[in-house]
Amino acid sequence: MAGSVLEIKDLHVSIEDKEILKGVNLTIKSGEFHAVMGPNGTGKSTLASAIMGHPKYEVTGGSITLDGEDVLEMEVDERARAGLFLAMQYPSEISGVTNADFLRSSINARREEGDEISLMKFIKEMDEAMDFLEMDKNMAQRYLNEGFSGGEKKRNEILQLLMMKAEIGILDEIDSGLDIDALKVVAKGINKLRDENFGCLIITHYQRLLNYIEPDFVHVMMQGRVVKSGGSELSQRLEAEGYDWIKKELNIEDETINA
């Protein structure tokens, strides 16, 4: 599907009756890379989880649509089949399911019955993607994320993103815990996807990832809202000056909401 649009309007999200997101507005189109930055506890990861339907997060107001379809009415697996992909900050380990089996099943879940990817084509594409990401081929037959290092888990998330051909990728702190070599490989994988059929939301604390993946738009979240947006120069200024200048400019008092 070309030309996908993920639209978030006035999104309010709570955890156990505590409001975390307080009216987030964001539109991500295919071909665009967006970065969301902000101090700890401002709701960045909550936004990612709410988009994908994590049951812990209750949407109390606003809307999320993908190509005009109501995402909030979809189950988690339906959101994935519709073209949304979340690369998690802490990927889960699944014993008894190999990396290759998980990937092939996930790809086929997005295809029509009778149009499943052939085993030979799958193996060829997986081998090529693993070579590109400098991954040990033995990882294909290991149980999903079980015993993987932090860097291996993050590369594996990008492997899934490359193989599943999502329309909108949501990357929740994909750079956390990576050394510089692993960071470069992960960035290379994300940049490989940059085209008119793929849009990306990158949630990060640091400019260092954005040195390798230049975003088209940068958004700053504070107190559960997007308070400022700009181009890549905005993240560079944040790296140089921190967030105090935005707080002063917008008269925002210090407050964390632990999400």
From TrEMBL:
Whether Nucleotide-binding counts among this entry's keywords is yes
Alphabetized Pfam families for the sequence = ABC_tran
Could you tell me which PANTHER family the record lists for this protein?
A: ABC TRANSPORTER I FAMILY MEMBER 6, CHLOROPLASTIC
Give the record's family classification: Belongs to the ABC transporter superfamily. Ycf16 family.
> Would you tell me the protein name for this molecule?
Fe-S cluster assembly ATP-binding protein
Q: What InterPro entries does the annotation carry? A: AAA+_ATPase (IPR003593), ABC_transporter-like_ATP-bd (IPR003439), ABC_transporter-like_CS (IPR017871), FeS-cluster_ATPase_SufC (IPR010230), P-loop_NTPase (IPR027417)
Q: Name one GO molecular function term.
A: ATP hydrolysis activity
Q: What region holds the ABC transporter domain?
A: 6-248
State the UniProt keywords alphabetically: ATP-binding, Nucleotide-binding
Under the heading NCBIfam families, the entry gives: sufC
Does the keyword section mention Nucleotide-binding? Answer: yes
